[in-house]
Amino acid sequence: MSIKHFSPESVSERRLEAVRQRLDGVTVAEAARRTGLSAPTVTAAWKAFCQGGWAAVPVRERGRRQGQAPRLTPLVQQALWRRLESPPPADEPGWTSAALAADVGAERGVALTRRSVEHWWEDEGLKISPWPLEQWGAERSSRGRWFRQTVAPVWQRLPRATQRWQGGARRVRHPQRPVYQLYFHGPRGRLWMRCLPHPPRADDYLLAFEALAQNGPAGLVFHGADLAASPEIQAWLAEQPEFYVFRLRGSE
Fold first, then answer.
1. Smallest Cα–Cα separation from 240: which of 229, 225, 227, 249?
2. To 10 degrees, what angle do helices 202-213 and 231-238 make?
3. Taking each helix axis from N to C terminus, what angle separates 11-23 and 39-52, rounded to the nearest 10 degrees?
């Protein structure tokens, strides 16, 4: 099967665009709608710009917010990394925060919650947001036309949220270890991930794709790797007439 391509804006580019919108007099709410960011994110980017110029606009949100759970112990964090680098649970494309909390909590004999794991994801730069695909469809732009002409017709044949996926592969800029991440967003933006100390190999992609495709027709908007460069992946896709892949090009 063929893989469709499109280049999205990165998260950092959308923050910069939100600041440009504010400079043009656009309200916070409207800038958030146009860029697909949350209003607090737009406000934070605008305040950073006002205080320090373009260089101060954050690339990504880091650190813990007020009221956030305390930092996990080093042993728990090591266990979380080990689990993320291992194959995910059967029939899952990656690890969810709930699965990590249950497995690592049982291993270490501590009470871990989904929220505490997600806070740790944020601290480690692993938390990534889904793209506002449906908003793109309303745009009068090249990506809007791409979504309407390429993705939307397939989405209409895949009406359930569990059939519509997006995800990608990226290298995480981590100060202490090499981290390559495979991530997938499913219903309601829920995040699955797996992390590796090396770029994902064909078997790593196929393990995740097989999990996504197991329950019937499914579509995946994918970013960050040239799947067409892998004969193994292409051979597998050719045997999956009801697994649709649309590739986005661009930086995170």
1. 227
2. 20
3. 70
- CA 223, 150, 165, 237 torsion: positive or negative? negative
d(CA 240, CA 210): 10
Task: Give the DSSP H/E element, type plus range, for residue 164.
Answer: strand 164-172
Between 97-108 and 74-84, two packed helices, what is the crossing angle to 10 degrees? 130
CA distance 243 to 136: 22
10 Å Cβ neighbour count for 232?
12
Structure tokens at 143: 């990506």
Q: Which of 2-16, 92-106, 125-139, 195-209 has the lowest mean pLDDT?
A: 2-16
Dump pLDDT digits (tens) for 11-51.
677 888 888 888 888 898 888 888 778 888 888 888 887 87
Alpha-carbon dihedral sign for residues 142, 153, 184, 224: negative
Per residue in 57-109, pLDDT (tens digit) is 876 544 444 444 557 899 999 999 999 999 999 899 999 999 999 999 999 99
CB-CB contact of 104 with 80 (8 Å): yes
Q: For the range 127-135, what are the long-range contacts, defined as Cβ-Cβ under 8 Å and sequence gap of 24 or more?
A: 127/61, 127/191, 128/11, 128/170, 128/181, 128/183, 128/191, 128/252, 129/11, 129/189, 130/166, 130/185, 130/189, 131/8, 131/36, 131/166, 131/221, 131/248, 132/36, 133/166, 133/221, 135/33, 135/36
Question: Does the reported pTM lie above 0.90?
Answer: no
Alpha-carbon distance of 243 to 80, in angstroms, equals: 31
Token output for 61: 């949100």
Contact between 136 and 144 under an 8 Å Cβ cutoff? The reply is yes
Asked if 12 and 60 touch (Cβ cutoff 8 Å), the reply is: yes
